[in-house]
Amino acid sequence: MGKIKKIIGAFLHAPGRFDELANRIANVNDRIGDVDRGFRERLSRMDFNWFFDQLYENGEELRRLNRRLSITPTVWGDPDRLEIDETAKVFTCFFNTNSGRIKIGEATFAGSGVSILTGSHDPQLTGTLRRDAEIRENSDIEIGKGVWLASGCTILGPCKIGDNAVIAAGAVVTPGTEVPANTIWGGVPAKQIKAIDPQETSPENPAVQEIFARSEGILFTEGWGERIPGLTETPGYWLYKTKGKILTDRAEWLMQYRREGMEKGVIRVTGPEGETVIELKASEGQKIIELPVTEGVLSEIELIREQGEKVFIALRAVEEGDREKQEEDTDEETEIDIDAIMREIKEEAKKHASSDEMPDF
Question: Which residues, at least 6 apart from 83, have a Cβ–Cβ distance to it below 8 Å?
């Protein structure tokens, strides 16, 4: 409230200062334009050998550039023919869509140097005709859910790869191939090596229990995007889907979050101990939550977004000092009385302006 009074008082006492500020902003904007033009001129004269020498001397900048390039997909052909599920992690691949569409399912991921190619030419032609008369259709590639495309493999359309399949490193899946779900393929040309037993994410699964024993007390299983560090103190996931599932044996957690496009920021959580509702009042923040699980019993719970675009969630164990911070956040989340604020503003304005100068609230 004190800040509001200072702003109103400053405006009423010295409106010229605001005019001066506006002029300074305008001048800065003009200078930005000059800087931008100068930058373009210098860029046109840049010695790129010198530029890359500087990168090599600064190892950290070079690593950052390499990381950025490695997660930027390369698409040869119409990008509208490429459909990638939001939870897939295949941006290290090279895509060619010249002769068909490419569709990639939920939670599929790829290693480095993977090529997914619909582009095809007619081997019966020769010379310029073979080179330029590229086939435009009928070489679609469909890759299902949870597929692992190991480093260096090549996928040639038309082909179809079923859910949870594995394409081994260096394998070449040739045109016309249909890879069944839950199988491992390798070699050139790729052939089935073995069938696999798909590991379900239920708490009773021994493989899941083994992974959980190595975790920090929580596993994000279905409906989540890539694990991302940096947005919060603890790495977390974007909940792209309407529903997301996790496994845990602990009820109390500190949840850190960031939400986009959610009007109310409501998440409904269901589990073996019933249902609870989590309200995210700010666009980002943290709060201690209780999940509907029995302490010490590994259980699956489901998080459902009530509305909006997406939310980023990270969960970690509650530490010393988190409860005091929780109390501070609760105090800040009390409802704001807009009418009371406006009354104070009017009273403050009356002290510094005549009735003719009073603004119309």
Answer: 101, 102, 103, 104
Q: Considering only the top CATH level, what class is 206-332?
A: mainly beta
**What's the CA dihedral at 68, 73, 77, 83 to 10 degrees?**
-140
Q: Burial of 249 by CB count in 10 Å (0-12 exposed, 13-18 middle, 19+ buried)?
A: middle
Question: Would you state the pLDDT for residue 31?
Answer: 46
Residue range 38-89, pLDDT digits in tens: 666 666 666 666 666 666 666 666 666 666 666 667 888 888 999 998 888 8
| Region label for 217, one of left (φ > 0), alpha (ψ between -120 and 50) or beta (otherwise) | left
Q: To 5 degrees, how large is the angle CA 113–CA 119–CA 123?
A: 115
For the domain made up of 71-123+130-195, give the CATH fold. Answer: UDP N-Acetylglucosamine Acyltransferase; domain 1 (2.160.10)
Going across the sheet that includes 299-305, the strands are 218-222, 243-248, 299-305, 266-271, 274-279
Sign (positive or negative) of CA dihedral 237, 240, 246, 250 = positive
6 pLDDT more than 70: no
Rounded CA-CA distance 343/72 in Å is 53
Q: Find the mean pLDDT for residues 154-163.
A: 95
**Residue 53: strand pairing partners:** none
Q: For 217-257, what is each residue's pLDDT tens digit?
A: 999 988 887 788 777 788 888 887 788 899 999 999 999 99
Query: What is the DSSP-derived secondary structure letter of residue 189?
Result: T
Both tokens of residue 89?
Answer: 């992690």
Interhelix angle for 338-352 vs 2-13, to 10°?
A: 30
Extract the tokens encoding 231: 């947005």
- Please tell me the predicted confidence (pLDDT) of residue 351: 65
Pairing type for strands 274-279 and 266-271 reads: antiparallel
Compute CA distances 326 → 4, 65, 202, 252, whole Å.
26, 38, 33, 13
| 3 state DSSP class of 201 | coil
Beta bridge mates, 2 = none
In angstroms, rounded to a whole number, what is the distance separating the alpha carbons of residues 296 and 290? 14
- Assessment of whether the complete model's pTM goes beyond 0.85: no
Q: Which two tokens stand for residue 203?
A: 């708490």
